[in-house]
Design brief:
This protein is mostly beta strands. About 5% of the residues lie in helices and about 65% in strands. The strands form 2 sheets. The protein has a 26-stranded antiparallel beta barrel. Strands 1, 2, 3, 4, 5, 6, 7, 8, 9, 10, 11, 12, 13 and 14 form a 14-stranded mixed β-sheet that branches. The longest helix is centred in the N-terminal third of the chain and has 20 residues. The chain starts with a strand and ends in a 12-residue tail after the last strand.
Length: about 675
């Protein structure tokens, strides 16, 4: 239904009253006739209202011609222009002069426009379009609207997510096609900063990542004193809703070209997997580096579960040469684990395999657990007692050493009694049998039997103050193991289970505020009665707090020689615009003294600064220093990282064009 109204302007007020009096009844009559003779189906049609200073209706062509501040309103869409021709049967509208369009999804301006109000299609001449939700801007001399969220241009057009003229960044190209929430493609495209071209590509494709889409992700630019200029270019492939892949191309001017592939998927039944392989031919060291990682998890709510975490490198120095992560660079062992677990009522059976790669010394003396079969009985109540047990049969393979097959049976009985003073006791038996092989000989089997008692007495004293509660928990523990001693190579923690007679005296102090632990101090003094006239083991002190400092400190003090053996501390101080973290590791026996510190500051909303430092006081001195700056604006951001370590200095730059590129989202299923 068309409702046409004539808007009286200042000039029309000067018209004779007889003309105005004639015009008003004419349009009222036109509206009344249209309502009386409308068919039933027209009641469901969209109502279109047209207002203008002057308007004519041509019945033979069923069109309106309006001039002067023309406005068309149809449901939630509004168009304004200086001149307009509207065809009521087809919904086509031709507008010219200061064209402005607005609906909940988009808004645009143009010199001239041709549109179909029903199909939301048409052409804009000298158009500038804004997608409101994602702030996409597309502009050009001729833009074709293909649908609600799609615009295209054969001629040159510009795309950006920035407000302002000129925009902070934009893409210019020909054969541009924008599908909001999906993708942007263009031919002969250039990337521009403040409308100054800085990069050119004959073909451009980018995902507009409101949803997962195939396309290039933002490249990472770097420069290293050992690797040279680097460019990392990732390409993301959205294979399906529940799986995706990322292809990686690394180029280093001094070292060569690396390629990587990551594949991820999720399946019903709690299945999740991530696979990664990377290879680079190092032109400087003249060798190939390869890394392979695979993570597979199948953890349904019930039934068998499978977990596999595989990590393999073909060269021990891979992480030192190509991984910027400090924790990876100092990693001693690289572990791979796979486990199949079968749950039962209050118990489970499992098949386990573990493999370690020594990243420091390739001596071949690392025991590999290939495989282990086991059964675990969780604590199960029988009367006033709790029963549990661990049973395992393990095969340890040692490349250059003594391999072993081991059977270990370890049942335990737990009993607890008391209220104000609680006595907890564990009684256990342990039987371990070995068969050895390797070094071109087979050794005779060995067996080790043990009985174990572990008893502790605990109590809790507290006092309530106005602002906090002070809790004191003293405890005494006695741990006794009688075991047949054998000179057995250590394969894992089972071999450290040895003859013991140990007493532990411990006091725990806690401060609670509004039901939350705010600070705690534990002091523990163990004594080993098998150590003759020096029974005292190192005194352990542990201190932690949540406010005003987030702190964790532990230290061991040798009371026999009056020396500090170990100190480990981690302290964080949060403040209004950031945080400071300091930590250190000290071990007297291993001659280790390492300090680390970091700071994060956000002086203003757009800038975040971060710095990290590692210092080895007993070795290389400054082992790692990195400074990171992130700068964010309305439509873009940049991250600059500088890292210094012995023999290498690296700079990295990564740009974010908000609305266009982002980290590939995780596949979902």
């Amino acid at each position: 239904m068309i409702v046409a109204m004539m808007r009286q302007g200042v000039s029309q007020i000067q018209k004779p009253l007889r003309e105005v009096a004639f015009a008003i009844p004419f349009f009222l009559l036109l509206t009344l006739i249209g309502a009386l003779f409308a068919e039933t189906c027209q009641a469901a049609e969209k109502e279109t209202t047209i207002t203008a200073e002057t308007m004519q209706y041509f019945s033979d062509e069923k069109k309106y011609v309006a001039t002067g501040a023309v406005t068309i309103e149809q449901e939630d869409a509004t168009i304004q222009a200086d001149q307009m021709t509207y065809f009521e049967e087809t919904g086509d509208v031709f507008m010219e002069g200061n064209v402005r369009y607005n609906d909940p999804v988009i808004a645009f301006t143009a010199r001239r426009a041709e549109m179909n109000m029903e199909k939301k299609t048409g052409r804009l001449f000298g158009g500038d379009v804004l997608f409101k939700e994602d702030n996409y801007h597309i502009s050009g001399d001729v833009l074709e609207r293909k649908g609600d969220k799609e615009f295209a241009s054969k001629e040159e057009a510009r795309f950006t997510t920035c407000d302002g003229i000129p925009p902070a960044w934009c893409f210019r190209g020909k054969d541009v096609n924008l599908l909001a929430g999906k993708s942007l493609t263009a031919r002969d495209a250039s990337f521009r900063l403040r409308d100054v071209p800085v990069l050119y590509t004959p073909y451009f494709m980018a995902p507009l990542l409101t949803e997962r889409q195939t396309g290039f992700l933002m490249p990472l630019i770097s420069n290293s004193s050992t690797r040279g200029f680097g460019l990392n270019i990732p390409f993301f492939w959205a294979i399906a809703e529940n799986r995706d892949a990322t292809f990686m191309l690394d180029t280093y001017s001094k070292r060569g070209i690396g390629t990587g592939l990551e594949y991820r998927f999720i399946e019903p039944g709690g299945i999740e997997s991530n696979w990664w392989i990377y290879h680079i031919r190092d032109n400087d060291l003249h060798k190939d580096f390869t890394e392979f990682k695979a993570l597979y998890e199948q953890r349904p709510g019930s039934g068998p579960s499978l977990f596999a975490n595989i990590n393999v490198v073909n060269e021990q120095d891979f992480y030192r040469e190509f991984n910027p992560n400090k924790e990876k660079q100092i990693l001693r062992y690289l572990e791979s684990t796979a486990e199949l677990s079968l749950p039962f009522k209050n118990s489970r059976g499992y098949l386990l395999g573990q493999y370690w790669i020594d990243l420091d010394h390739d001596t071949g003396d690392v025991p590999q657990r290939l495989p282990e079969v086991g059964y675990v009985l969780h604590y199960t109540r029988i009367g006033s007692f709790m029963v549990s047990a661990d049973t395992s049969a393990s095969n340890f393979w040692v490349k250059n050493g003594v391999s072993a097959q081991r059977l270990d049976i370890y049942p335990r009985l737990l009993h607890s009694l008391g209220d104000a003073v609680v006595l907890t006791q564990i009684f256990a038996l342990r039987e371990t049998a070995y068969a050895f092989s390797g070094d071109d000989k087979t050794q005779s089997g060995l067996q080790r039997q043990a009985a174990e008692y572990d008893g502790s007495v605990n109590m809790r004293l507290y006092r309530q103050y106005a602002a906090f509660t002070h809790i004191i928990e003293p405890s005494v523990r006695y741990h006794y193991i009688t075991s047949s001693e054998n000179d057995i190579q250590v394969y894992d923690a089972v071999e450290t289970y040895k003859k013991t007679s140990r007493v532990e005296l411990s006091v725990l102090n806690r401060l609670r505020v509004k039901g939350r632990d705010m600070a705690a101090l534990r002091v523990t003094q163990p004594l080993d009665t098998y150590q003759g006239d020096r029974p005292f083991l190192p005194l352990t002190v542990e201190l932690s707090s949540r406010t005003p400092l987030v702190m964790s400190i532990s230290a061991q003090y040798d009371v026999n020689y009056g020396t500090v053996k170990t100190v480990t501390s981690d302290i964080s101080l949060p403040f209004k615009r950031g945080s400071i973290h300091v930590g250190q590791r000290y071990n007297k026996d291993e001659d280790i003294m390492v300090y680390k510190a970091s700071i994060i500051v956000q002086p203003v909303r757009a800038i975040e600064l971060a710095a990290k430092v590692w210092y080895d006081a007993k070795g290389e001195g400054l082992t790692n220093l990195s400074v990171d700056m992130r700068y964010s604006r309305q439509c873009w951001g940049v991250r600059i990282t500088a890292a210094k370590r012995p023999g290498d200095f690296t700079m990295q730059v990564m740009f974010d064009l908000f609305g266009v590129t982002a980290k590939a989202p995780k596949a979902s299923g």
